[in-house]
Amino acid sequence: MLNKRWTIAACMLAAVGTISACGGGANPKAGNDQAGETPSVDLTKIPVHLVIHDTTGEKVELLMDKYGNKLKEKFPNWTFEIVPKVDSKTLPNLIAGGTTIDMVVESTGVSTMEYDLQGDISDLIAKHKYDLNRLEPTAVEIQRKMANGGIYGLPTWTRSMILYYNKDLFDMFGVSYPKDGMTWDELYDVTRKMTRTEGGQSYKGLTMAFEFGLMLNQLGAPSQDAKSGKALFLDDTFKKAFENQSRFYQIAGNGLPGDRFYLDNQQNPFYKNKTVAMFLTLSGAEKIYKDSVNWDVAEFPVFEDKKGIGSQSYPTYFFLSKASKNRDAAFQVLSYLTSDEYQSFASRSGIITILKDTSVMKQFAADLPYVQGKRIQAMIPAKYAEPTLKTKYNAIANKELLAALEAVAKGTDVNTALREAAERNDKQVGAEQGK
């Protein structure tokens, strides 16, 4: 009955020429008739049902707090079905089950492209006179690269690499807190100082979300060729990024546990066991750490010749599915989520703005008492690094680069580890392309 009701609603909308016709894609002549342009129709007054598939891994309750409730408040005549990526609710299963997806929420766009849901929204940007110049430039640039000059979706918020540290450990060992503007070499020295054994307890100076550090490296070096998916692991610039991070695990006492890398054995000792002084990861972990560790943050470290430049931005995008029969309505959602109104709300909730004008960040995390007094301004670099395009084979690259890190931890030289990882990457990408 529900599907029938929305089919009728879609037909009614098609009749007034605002959203696509029943059973088809977008109507390129929407809003016009033989006599010329028809009067505009306020879509917000007409019932619309929109399906949002969110791949970020957050539970639906958190997604409602993040944006779902605000969408219901802004568009009271519309209904929103937010489907998080959990259990069987994966994109291929939803598609196979006949669900028409209007928007896909993800950072890299890999899922959207893998299942051929991407569609250029340049026509909607022009039609609604949307100003892309309001947005953080590198977030738009990566979309242009992804869509060969077009654009598949709009960024709604972002994250960046940041250095969390345990103030209590620095106080206990009498070492100065990490500072903004530190070079990688300075961070290396601090890591060595903080790696020690005291009272029979071993402490590590630094652990990190290694794959995110590489994916968002400050040098703007991609891990794969954008067209072929072949590994660029041995490219001089990317190799420099890999060597820079992997050297921290070669400090005596700071190695990989059991020569294995996984996120839990990097993050848990920082905020659960409190045996790691610093953790380099994506911003946004404050909720996890708030009740367990006396934390603060410092800026992402810099290469000597890249001072003032942070990590790459890691935006979350709302991709408008080309399968949507409600493109104009979906675009209004994208437009609202990038508005000053929503961005101000999001900033107060501890979400980094996607706007080029970062003035809304003056109220950053104002509604979160556990970040008060923290150096949260360090979460936004003065300038984001040049963005790199992530291919649909990005997961293969990440897996093989972690395998290369583990090989280095076991004593393999970097060149051999990266060469073998590149060979495995290319073999797997080739197999995927041959399917």
Describe the structure.
The protein is built from 16 helices and 12 strands. Helix 15 packs antiparallel against helix 16. It has a 5-stranded mixed sheet, sandwiched between helices. The chain has helices at residues 2-15, 60-74, 91-96, 110-114, 122-127, 137-146, 167-173, 184-194, 210-215, 236-246, 264-271, 286-289, 327-337, 340-348, 394-409, 414-433, and strands at residues 32-33, 36-37, 48-54, 78-84, 103-106, 153-157, 161-166, 196-198, 201-208, 276-282, 295-298, 316-320. With 435 residues, it is of the alpha/beta class. The two termini are 39 Å apart. The chain folds into 2 domains: 2-159 and 315-371, 3-Layer(aba) Sandwich (D-Maltodextrin-Binding Protein, domain 2); 161-311 and 393-433, 3-Layer(aba) Sandwich (D-Maltodextrin-Binding Protein, domain 2), CATH 3.40.190. It comes from Paenibacillus oceani. It is found in: Cell envelope. Keywords: Signal, Transport. This is Extracellular solute-binding protein. Belongs to the bacterial solute-binding protein 1 family.
